[in-house]
Design a protein that fits this description.
Radius of gyration: 27 Å
Largest sheet: 2 strands, antiparallel
Strand order of the largest sheet: 1-2
Order of helices and strands: HHHHEEHHHHHHEHEHHHHHHHHHHHHHH
Number of helices: 25
Distance between the termini: 73 Å
Structural class: mainly alpha
Helix content: 55-70%
Shape: globular
Length: 568
């Protein structure tokens, strides 16, 4: 027989736990309404409710997305309370939730097992602690996707668990696995968000590659095969544009199950063995809200936008978990995650300057020609990547709203800009880096698609373009250097796509020369991981160009590469 609650605290705990035990995607709205109906009278009762939600999310990791959706829906449902310790501060739902996440993260043990535990109980303790740790990482990731955690907080978590590149100490295996879980949950959004997010993902991938290749005393690998394969899975997922096979079914609503059943019936009872999904993307309702805000003229903060950008916050060794609120009017607005590509309607309409720096005055059409693109490249060369990040280039390109064909021509003008621009005459190497950086900025923010850039690269290195001029400067060697630098840079920052191979000429010898040039560029650098990545991405095409295994063999291919100075 269940006894009646002895106190108000016990009554609230029972009511909340009863609701949490029934939660699933189908009844989420009803559970949220009932949770919001629980009357709270103090900050302590609010902490009790949030603690119960947090523990339920870690104990039922299969429903972690559902719990995250519930947190997002409840963050404005409960009232604010004065802090019990005084000081005039208020305690809110989101504040207490993030404090709980902070406490859980700080209380994580360095090791999953304790020496005081007997061997019989050690395995159970390891499995339990590890599952809780990984569930916490996934939960933090989904809070980030719902704009409840800032990018700086994710950065602190990654650095605290993985350490820096210069750090000789190797993190524990469960910490590496936890970071892989976190990046799998948020990598797609990080890669399409602000510069800080992309840099965080880039640095984390390099750190994981270094840990994967690390050796312990005696030359043996520092980590087990399971961890090294887990790192491989994450890196492969990034290279495949975060398209992930779903080996484990996610929690579904009844409508989703019905749709799957209808699809299976329509296919004669045969469906794909594994479904695929975009790993690490934000929920549809978050994206819809941001799109609606842009449509209404408001600037929605990107995922993980950090409102506290003061120097004191940057120097804080472990900042507290905090909401990613929009900045105050006195602070500069953050850069949007990705500017929308011009629509067909905007491309066909007259181009107005809209106040752009390079636009014509008085709302006249912007002439999208070689001179205009050259001015954009010159401005890009005059600004530091850390200070500007290519924002002026992207905004002016967006205001010009080129059509698809004009975008291809404009990309070629941009890549040729360092060959004739006066700003590049003094330092050709810096000019090459500038145009490659500009192409990657436009590609990474959706203003150029890979098929468009591939066509521009193909025109750039075409023999007839170099011989007849077509108004374009420079010789064949300089143009091939641009081609190779673009390939290598996109490989380095994770923007490379198989559509890039459309840029290769039809002549096999010319295609071979360009691909070998990319490998030579990679060999000149100091990053072994980038060299391996370039060889891995290009290997199948190299084999196809040289006719492996029909006309030659892989051993002969290695010999041919060695003759070019590439020791593989």
């Amino acid at each position: 027989r269940i006894s009646s609650p002895n106190s108000r605290t016990e009554e609230i705990r029972r009511s909340v736990n009863s609701l949490l035990n029934k939660i699933c995607p189908e009844n989420l709205g009803r559970i949220v309404s009932q949770m919001a109906g629980v009357q709270l009278e103090s900050a302590g009762e609010l902490e009790l409710v949030i603690g119960a939600i947090f523990q339920a999310a870690l104990a039922n990791s299969h429903h972690v997305e559902t719990y995250s959706d519930m947190v997002f829906a409840l963050k404005t449902k409960y009232p604010e309370f004065h802090a019990e310790e005084g000081g005039g501060k208020f305690v809110t739902f989101a504040r207490v939730l993030l404090d709980t996440c902070q406490q859980e993260f700080e209380s994580l043990p360095d090791a999953l097992q304790s020496p005081e535990v007997s061997d019989a109980d050690r395995r159970d303790m390891v499995d339990k602690n590890k599952e809780r740790f990984l569930a916490n990482m996934r939960f933090l990731g989904h809070l980030f996707l719902r704009n409840l955690l800032s990018t700086r907080i994710v950065q602190v978590i990654v650095e605290d668990l993985l350490g820096s590149v210069d750090d000789n100490a190797l993190p524990e295996e469960h910490m590496v696995e936890g970071i892989c879980e976190l990046l799998t949950a948020i990598g797609y959004t990080l890669e399409r968000s602000c510069n800080l997010s992309r840099r965080l993902l880039h640095d984390s991938a390099h750190r994981l590659e270094a840990l994967q290749a690390a050796s312990a005393e005696g030359g043996a690998p520092a980590y087990s095969k399971r961890i090294r394969f887990r790192i491989d899975d994450l890196l492969d997922l990034r290279r495949s544009d975060w398209q992930q096979r779903m080996y484990h079914e996610r929690a579904k609503t009844l409508d989703d199950i019905r749709r799957d059943a209808v699809k299976e019936w329509a296919n004669g009872g045969c469906i794909k063995q594994f479904a695929t999904a975009k790993a690490g993307s934000q929920p549809a309702y978050i994206l819809a809200a941001e799109a609606e805000a842009k449509k209404l003229g408001r600037k929605a903060p990107p995922a993980g936008a950090d409102a506290d950008a003061s120097p004191a916050a940057a120097l804080r060794p472990r900042p507290r978990l905090r909401l990613a609120e929009p900045p105050s009017p006195s602070e500069p607005l953050p850069e949007p995650a990705a500017e929308p590509s011009p629509s067909l309607a905007s491309a066909s309409s007259p181009r107005s300057s809209a106040g752009g720096e390079f636009g014509a005055a008085g709302g006249l059409p912007i002439p999208f020609d070689r001179a205009f693109v050259g001015r954009l490249a010159g401005r890009l060369a005059a600004t530091s990547p850390r200070r500007d990040g290519g924002f002026a280039l992207r905004s002016s390109w967006r205001e010009a709203a080129p059509t698809s064909e004009e975008a291809v021509q404009g990309a070629q003008w941009l890549l040729e800009a360092h060959l004739c621009g006066p700003w590049a005459a003094r330092d050709r190497r810096r000019g090459l880096e500038t145009v490659v950086r500009g192409a990657c900025e436009l590609l990474g923010h959706g203003h150029l698609a890979w098929p468009q850039l591939a066509r521009a690269l193909r025109h750039l290195v075409a023999e007839e373009a170099a011989a007849e001029g077509e108004g374009g400067p420079g010789g064949g060697i300089e143009r091939e250097a641009v081609f190779c630098a673009v390939f290598l840079r996109t490989l380095e920052v994770g923007l490379f796509h198989t559509a890039a191979f459309r840029a290769l000429p039809t002549d096999r010898d010319d295609a071979w020369r360009l691909l070998v040039g990319v490998l030579k560029f990679a060999a000149e650098g100091e990053c072994e991981g980038l060299r391996r990545r370039a060889l891995g991405e290009l290997w199948e095409v190299l084999c196809a160009v040289r006719g492996v295994p029909v006309e030659t063999s892989e051993r002969e291919l290695f010999r041919q590469l060695a003759r070019h100075g590439l020791a593989l």
